[in-house]
Amino acid sequence: MTDIKRLGLGCMGMNMSNKERSIETIRYALRSGVTLLNTGEFYGGGESEMVLREALAGVSRDRYFLSVKFGVLPQPGGGIYGLDVKPWNVKAHLAYSLHRLGLDYVDLYQPARMDESIPVEEIIGAIQECVDAGYVRNIGLTQLAPENLERAAKVNQIHTVELAYSLANRNIETNGILDVARKHNMNILAFSVLQHGLLSDNSSAGAGRPGMPQEVKEAILSGIREIAGEKNTSVENLLQAYVYAKNPDMSILIGTTRKEHLQDSINALSVELSAEDIKWIETVFPAEQLQGMGMRNFIFRDGRMEM
């Protein structure tokens, strides 16, 4: 049976310019049984939250689980210049999000990244104050070092850890963070399972990223396309199914503003892969083949971004 709860809708691309389409996709997700909606205060300069407010108007609050990330500082012309996860400012970030969303509480609240100059315990403690006040139901974390996740787990129950993971980026399999999450019974949510388009079968997706000429992408995907054909599915569905099959306790986040793309991801839940299939896929596409291509690791210290 298809486990729709293993799929969440990422709302990063939703803004006022595609508002009607995005609202249609959010409502389609809810009708299809998808309940996890994932946004950030900085997505579209707050517009993602505003779109969600309209889409969720009149929807019973128990029909969806809303996750909100905070802290990234956007520039007026686009891009980001820093991070604000100072414990003193957490309540202010949350207040603005609740206002834009038109809600009394969010189900999951998490810093978008960690600031290396601030102890994780202090950030978690500030969010816990929001939990105690009833404005947040659960605490989440994303993209952090395993030792920080372990420290956080010692002071508070972490509901969800959100991690970048794909066939091309399997770092979390070896750096120990999955062991920490599983030891403490955290939900594991994978994002960027198509590597921001690098693994899409779309002819142009990801082609402009550093270190990824179109001919290289085509060579990489040719073997995956063959396997997808054997399974009578698309490359995208196969790669999502790979994540599900290899990690039965993992859910994935799909960012889209189109209900057709969301339905494709729902279809991927029904693609069955065996241990032999997983090994075959990884043989065709060794993890090191895309090492460093189009991938950036941002580190923040004292609010400033370091590469």
What does this structure look like?
The chain is an alpha/beta fold and 307 residues long. It has one domain (4-306): TIM Barrel, CATH 3.20.20.100. The chain contains 10 helices and 12 strands. The chain has helices at 19-32, 47-55, 90-101, 120-132, 146-155, 177-183, 214-230, 235-246, 259-268, 275-284, and strands at 7-10, 36-40, 65-70, 72-74, 80-83, 106-111, 136-142, 160-164, 187-191, 250-255, 299-301, 304-306. The strands form 3 sheets. The protein has an 8-stranded parallel β-barrel with strand order 1-2-3-6-7-8-9-10, surrounded by 5 helices. Strands 4-5 form a two-stranded antiparallel sheet. α4 packs across α5 (146-155). The radius of gyration is 19 Å and the shape is globular. The mean pLDDT is 90.
How are the SSEs ordered, and which strands pair?
Elements (H helix, E strand, L loop, with lengths): L6 E4 L8 H14 L3 E5 L6 H9 L9 E6 L1 E3 L5 E4 L6 H12 L4 E6 L8 H13 L3 E7 L3 H10 L4 E5 L12 H7 L3 E5 L22 H17 L4 H12 L3 E6 L3 H10 L6 H10 L14 E3 L2 E3 L1
Parallel strand pairs: 1-2, 1-10, 2-3, 3-6, 6-7, 7-8, 8-9, 9-10
Antiparallel strand pairs: 4-5, 11-12
